[in-house]
Specification:
46% helix; extended; 74 residues; mainly alpha; two-stranded antiparallel ribbon
């Protein structure tokens, strides 16, 4: 079923001024609505959570130096 055909729910999200500024800034930079940005963030969080549950590690690598760092999420 396509997204437009799915029943949608409304949620109120309370953010600090700083958090809302981050959402607005990222949405502008990515040319997304704030809703689309939050949906994308949720999909990313879910994908990371599934991988962590399997025992995988989340690594970030610098393209230039090839330095790798593990992201530790609580």
């Amino acid at each position: 079923m396509r997204e437009k055909e799915r029943a949608k729910k409304t949620m109120t999200l309370n953010l600090s001024d700083e958090e809302m500024s981050v959402v607005e800034s990222l949405a502008r930079e990515k040319d997304l609505s704030k809703t689309a940005l939050i949906r994308q963030a949720l999909r990313l969080y879910q994908a990371v959570d599934v991988r962590r549950a399997r025992g995988d590690k989340l690594m970030v690598e610098n393209d230039e130096t090839k330095e790798k760092s593990e992201l530790v999420l609580l």
